[in-house]
Amino acid sequence: MADWKNPPRLFIPGPVKVDDDVLKELARPTLGHRLPEYAQLHGDTVDMLKKILFTEQNVFLCTNSASGIWEAAIRNCVGFDETVLCAMCGAFSDKWASVAKSCGRNVEELKVEWGQATTAEMIDKKLASGKYAAITMVYNETSTGLTNPVYEISEMMKEKYPDVLVFVDSVSAMVGLPIHFDKLGWDVTFASVQKAFALPPGFTVALVSNRALQKSKTVPQRGYYFDFQAFAKAAAKNQTPTTPSVPHIAGLNYQCKKLVKEGMENVWKRHKEMGDFVRGWAKDNFDLFCEERYASNTLTTIKNTKGIDVGATIKAVQAKHNTVFGNGYGDLKNKTFRIAHMGDINMADLKELLAWIDEEIN
Ligand SMILES: *Cc1c(COP(=O)(O)O)cnc(C)c1O
Which of 196, 204, 341 is nearest to 259 (CA)? Predict the structure, then answer.
C-alpha cells in the first residue's frame, strides 16, 4: 500500500511539503566543500540569512537535525558548575530539559500545563533567585500549537537579567514568525529546515551570539561535532568544520532568495493569513487547543471536541487524496490533531485540505 516514491502531500507539522522547483535545487552538481565554489554558496547563503533573521552575529550551517543544537547550546555555553532554567510547555521544550540533564548539567524546570504559555512574569520570578547562568525556551511549541510571548520575555530579560544567556528553540517558528536576533538579545537560536524553510529534513540553521561564542571558550568538554569554536573558525572562511550537506545549502540558498524578494513583513503576514484561516475553520467545527492569543501562525493544534476518530479521518483523507495531516502529539493523540500552515504550503492547499476533512466529519 505505502509507496515511498509516491508519498502523501504533507500537512503534518514537519516535515512539510516541498515544491518541485525547490527539490530540483538539491540535485545540482556536487561541490567540493573546500573549493571556492562552495565558499561562494556558503557566504551568499549566510548573508541572506543575516538579513532574514536581523543579525550581524554568527550564522552556522549545520548538517544535523535541530535536536543536535539543543545539545550544542548546552555543551558549549553552560558550565558543569552552573544551572540552566528550562521553560517547559510541551513535548519539545520538555525534551530540551532532558537533553540538558543528559549532558550532566544542573537543570531546574519551569513547567506549565500543556496548552499554557510561559510568560515573562513566570520567568522573572524564577530568575530573581540569581542562580541561573542560562535559560532554554521554545518559541513555538509544535505539540500544542502555541507561540510563547518571546518578545515580551526578551525585553524583560534584557532589562532585568542581562547576564543570563538566552537559548531559544525556533524550529517551527523560524521565517514564519519574526526573529530579530540581535535586538532580542538572544544567544543561541536554531531551526531545522523541514519546517518553515520548506526543505527536506536533515539540516539546521543556527545563530550564535558573540558573547555565547566567547563563553564557549571557557567551557570544557564541548565535544567534537558541535563545537562552536570549530564552527566559528570554519565560518570565517565560509566553510563548515566537517563535510556539509551541500544539496541542502543549495536548496536553502534558493529558499532564502525567495524570502528576501518577498520581504519578511510579507512572509509573516502570509503565515498569519493562513493561521487566521485555519483557526476560523477550527473554531467553526471544533475548538483551539490553546488560548487564541497564543495560537501559532505556523500550525494549529485543534481540540477534538466532536470526538471524531482522528486516525480514521487521516486515513480516509489519505486514501482518497494522497494527503495527510497530523494527529495529536504524544498524550494529545486523538484528543487533538494538527495542521501545518508554514513554508510553501499556501491558501489553495489549505482550502483543499479543509474541504476534504469537512467531507469526512460532517
Ligand atoms: C520539529 C521540532 C524539533 C525537532 O527537530 P528535529 O529537526 O527533528 O531534530 C524541535 N523543536 C521543535 C519546536 C520542533 O518543532
Answer: 196
Q: What is the pLDDT of residues 228-256, one digit of tens each?
A: 999 999 999 999 999 999 999 999 999 99
What is the atom index within ligand 1 of the atom nearest the CA of 141?
13
50 alpha carbon to ligand 1 midpoint, in Å?
21
Cα 201 to Cα 77: distance, rounded to the nearest angstrom: 26
Fold match between 9-17+263-361 and 20-260?
no
Give me the pLDDT at residue 2, please.
87
CA of 70 to the centre of ligand 1 (A): 10
Global confidence as pTM: 0.98
CB-based contact 114:121 (threshold 8 Å) = no
Pocket of ligand 1 (CB under 6 A): 14, 65-67, 92, 138, 142, 169, 171-172, 192
**CATH T-level assignment (fold) for domain 20-260:** Aspartate Aminotransferase; domain 2 (3.40.640)
CATH number of 9-17+263-361: 3.90.1150.10
3-state secondary structure of 62: strand
| Residue-range domain boundaries for the chain | 9-17+263-361, 20-260
